[in-house]
Amino acid sequence: MAVLRLRFTKTKRDKLAQVLWILNWISVVTGVILFSLGLFLKVEINKRGELMAERDIQYVPNMLIAVGIIACAINFLGGKICYDCVDTTKFLRWKLIMLPYIICTFFFTFCVLVGALMCYSMHGELEESLNLGLAEAIRFYKDTDTPGRCFLKRTVDMLHIEFQCCGNNGYKDWFQIQWISNRYLDMSKKEVADRLRSNVEGKYLIDGVPFSCCNINSPRPCIQQQITNNSAHFNYEHQTEELNLWMKGCRQALLEYYTHIMQSIGLTVLITWLFELSVLTGVRYLQTSLENVLRQGDLDSESDGWLLENSFMETARTNLNIIKSLGKSNQIDTANNGDPNINVPSTSKAHYGPDNVPPNEIPEAS
Amino acid sequence: MVVMKMKFPFQKRVKLAQGLWLLSWCAAISGAITFSLGCILKTELRRRAEVMDNSDIHVVPNTLMIVGLASLGINYFASKICQDALDAGRFPRWKNMLKPYFAVSCFFTVLMLLAVIMSFAMKGSLESSLKVGLRNGIRFYKDTDTPGRCFQKQNIDRLQMDFHCCGNNDFRDWFEVQWISNRYLDFSSKEVKDRIKSNVDGRYLLDGVPFSCCNPSSPRPCIQFQLTNNSAHYNYDYQTEELNIYLRGCREALVHYYMGLMNAIGAGVLSVFLLQASVLVSLRFLQTSMEAVAGNENTEIETEGYLLEKPLKETIMEYIEPVMKFFLLTNQVEEGTPGAPAST
Lengths: 366, 344
Hints:
The complex is a heterodimer.
Chain A: E1 6-8, H1 10-47, H2 59-85, H3 88-121, H4 123-139, H5 152-163, H6 190-197, H7 250-296, E2 303-305, H8 312-328
Antiparallel strand pairs in A: 1-2
Helix pairs in contact in A: 1-2, 1-7, 2-3, 3-7, 4-7
Chain B: E1 6-8, H1 10-47, H2 59-85, H3 98-121, H4 123-139, H5 152-163, H6 190-197, H7 250-293, E2 303-305, H8 312-328
Antiparallel strand pairs in B: 1-2
Helix pairs in contact in B: 1-2, 1-7, 2-3, 2-7, 3-7, 4-7
């Protein structure tokens, strides 16, 4: 009882081969697209590498790149095979390779699906990585004289301006760390000395934010210092003021940005997966119908094509038996307790005549 | 006196026609590229239209777009003509069209050259337009509640951050205007009253700049206020401080950007002009050499081709005369008409 049996005339088989040839070439193009999407994601993640803590997020773009390259190779081979299938003599060249090719491609489509699902699963790891990375970056904002951290200030400022965000969760993160370096603080002043003494660690904490947190849509000039002090500024109330600074936290802004990219990529990979699966189905039908034609002998006649020869359960059972017997091919017969030296009489049924026949007399040479 | 006479044997004519067909298609693609370059330039100019006082500079991209479209048409017809040129039966039908076709093509080719020259020469016009536009932008920075000027602050802030510049000529332009609106000034405070009384117009002037002038590459947090007061900030000397705010003026930055763009486009369009001119010259040679063949039984004879039948001045007069006659002399009675109608 074959699975999804279809009848194929000669013209139908030829048309199928030609269509599959074109579809395989389109799949090569989609493979290139997958490769470039993976490359794009890798570049985007590396661009903000300074703001991300060490986490295992490189595996997603790497997987996409690998899948893209393998898709190109497999579909290129598939295109060649389908091109040759129009001519039945050339098909004989590929006859033995086709079944392993189909099995490999089937497992490969699983990899494509896994790649698509990984795009959606990266969310949690990315959030954690950004959280830690941004907290570190904000802490080292003032260290523009420390080698290795000279450009962190510039990076954080450009991040605020580009993504229209402030701080890790919000602008209040800046109140908890010292973001003005001691090099620019006049330690002889009373105000500075008071602030340093007011907390345990001796940090110069203020309720102010860097200039890059300023919102350009605000109708009034930016208020960066004494943000929580309503009386320090005319006609200002910090609880209701929304347009003065960027209200969004940078972690959320970056997460939204990357999630948007990865959702688009994930959708594209899913569509590619469906396309690959349909091409694979077509190739399977082509293979089975051509094999049946060869079995029938007449190359121009109709033949059947199917996905599986027997029902799904039987095929699974047969394959499992094959795999089991592969393991047993080298084992010795264990009938005599495993001792190969005991003579076992032959149980052959061949009869070579009675045992006591005298030999023939040799005629004398004349 | 014929201009540039050349001999054309049959094989040379055939090669000329084939080469010209290819060349005209290349020129058509170049025309499309010219059109798109014009579109790009126009888009870029419109993006910063709020800081430009007039749109005189838009004549450059407009001309490029017109010339690009015209070039597509010219080269399409050029390819059709040279396809028909070698066929003695089909060539005569183009006979009447060729004179106006060459006139129009020469006009548009010269226009292309003019566009290239303009893209280099209009720097002064652009600069004066930006000067006035930026001055107004800075003056109306505080008027975020006035309809029509609500977004001036946003535009100037974005401009300063994108182009890494501050003010019109430099950051000191901000010291001469009141950029903080009266809505946010506490008039009961002594400091505010002093400042307002200190100048004739009663404006609140300070030696500070908006936050968008701040340079993110500075190693220290941005100093925006009391810029000229060294003692107001620790370890600060405004004469030697270079990284704190952007020192370049926005006019200089914008002129530099647009001139770079227009120079690059001008260089590209110049090469398109040379290509177009060579197409027209080759077509003229092909036309004149094929006309000499007309009427002969044997189409494979050697003929002469030339650029102009008469010297350049006479040719120009020949073309302009009918145009002038049409526009200027339609209403005048012709002088010296023999047999005055008065005598009966």
